Amino acid sequence: MSDSESHKSLRMPDEDEVFAVVTNMLGANRVRVRCMDGKERTARIPGRMQKRIWIREDDVVLVEPWDWQDEKADVAWRYDKQDADQLRREGHIQEM
User: Fold this and answer.
1) Are 36 and 79 in contact (CB under 8 A)?
2) Which of 70, 72, 85, 92 is the most exposed place for a label (fewest CB within 10 A)?
């Protein structure tokens, strides 16, 4: 596979979204995430994602922090392993 094939354009965060890495599965459709803005948050997996997309520890996700409660967020997107590796290579995600 050539470089141009392996480099696909990925969904990037909107102005109200931030990259995060799942650190814990909490149950009840909630996960603990470490966001790239340095905060730990409890993120909710919305109903539209629950049965279709399986989220596991160490997955890279996009979360949308709540305006009124900063320690909570909603999961907006999950990247698969290849996409997460590409984000790390491009420097969007820093390992902590």
Assistant:
1) no
2) 70
- pTM beyond cutoff 0.70: yes
- φ/ψ of 6, rounded to 5, equals -75, -20
| Residue 36 burial (CB count, 10 A) | 17
Domain that holds residue 44: 11-87
Who wins on pLDDT, 6 or 94? 94
Domain membership of residue 93 (yes or no) is no
Q: What is the pLDDT of residues 44-88, one digit of tens each?
A: 998 888 778 889 999 999 999 999 888 999 999 999 999 999 998
Residue bearing tokens 């995060």 = 20
List the structure tokens of 39.
């905060």
What is the Cα Rg of the chain in Å?
13
